[in-house]
Amino acid sequence: MDDNRDRVLRLRARLYALIRAFFAERAVLEVDTPILGQAGVTDVNIESFDTGFTGPANGGVRQRFLRTSPEYWHKRLIAEGIGDCYELGKVFRNGEFGRRHNPEFTLLEWYRVGWDHHRLMDEVEALVRTAFAFGGRTTGNSERVTYRELFKRHLAIDPLRASDDELRQLTATFWVDANRLDRDTCLDVLLTHRIEPALPPTGLTFVYDYPASQAVLSRIRKEPDGYKVGERFELYAGQVELANGFHELTDAGEQLARFEQDNRQRAARGLPVMPIDARFLAALEDGLPGCAGVALGIDRLLMAIVETDDIRDVLAFSFPDA
Fold first, then answer.
1. How far, rounded to the nearest angstrom, does the alpha carbon of residue 38 sit from its chain's CA centroid?
2. N or C: less crowded end of the chain, CB within 10 Å?
3. Residue 230 forms beta bridges with which residues?
4. Is-contact 7 313, C-beta < 8 A?
């Protein structure tokens, strides 16, 4: 084993210990939830790995999915009264492979009862700064900017007010067949191809309050001018996304409607329609308390600490070598 690989593996082990100490100090409980579940994620931008159970019929449904996040299980526990909790473990996303992506990766996810996304950003920043200092690096300055302001600053366009045609025209300046893209795809392309490369190469940037159409599992709030935003955030270390957080939706009816809309979009794109997690919806019905949650990519965090742009540099074995 070469010295650099040995160093990174040992750094990862110490980082795990640091994370556990960080949450133990704050009385946040570590939990261990299933990796195989009965329902996959409906998000049109995420694909689940699936497998089949061959055991006795009383084991439940045959088709199972590797988790893309432990979110649904955490919220079920919170609805039962577990309180603040976190999990550090493996998750899986099919089709995602490249310099910044491995289909199997390590995720830190945690939930704070009674918090909103602004308060959670404070804790995310505290953890990331602690991790950077532990790795012998500084994080630089930190900025918090709304999604709306970010588009105005970099592209001179209001992403909430702009028409679909305006967004397509802007995207068409560098994207072939932009006229075939829907609104949210245009916004995603503009964010990843025009805005992210223009973010400061060092420091932390929190982008928050996304368009309501991108609320995912977050609450929606109406702005003073009548436009709606999803109460969620993403954290960038330099120009690399590290974390995705939400002021969590607790309305079961609204959550079901979003799942169904996701599946309609999946069907329209020729993607498999995913089974909806009835147990998760039942937990919302029973009463999920107000909370905020965040998922932070540990491999990406290590990449930032050791200053590499290749995820293979921080893994024991990458996907092709697994």
1. 21
2. N
3. 210, 220
4. no
pTM of whole model > 0.90? yes
Which positions ≥6 away from 143 have C-beta within 8 Å? 200, 203, 204, 205, 206
Partner residues linked to 232 by β-bridges:
246
DSSP states along 203-265: SEEEEEEEEGGG-TTB-EEE-TTS-EEEEEEEEEETTEEEEEEEEB---HHHHHHHHHHHHHH
User: Going by DSSP bridges, is the β-strand pair 142-146/204-211 parallel, antiparallel, or unpaired?
Assistant: parallel
pLDDT in tens, 137-184: 888 899 999 999 999 999 999 999 999 999 999 999 888 788 888 999
User: What string of DSSP letters covers 96-151?
Assistant: --SSS--SEEEEEEEEEET--HHHHHHHHHHHHHHHHHHTT-----EEEEEHHHHH
Give the separation between CA 159 and CA 152, rounded to whole angstroms.
Answer: 8
DSSP 186-207: HHHHHIIIIIGGGS-SSSEEEE
With b for 16 or more beta-carbon neighbours within 10 A and e for fewer, the 192-209 pattern comes to eebbbeebeeeebbbbbb
For 2, the token pair is 């070469």
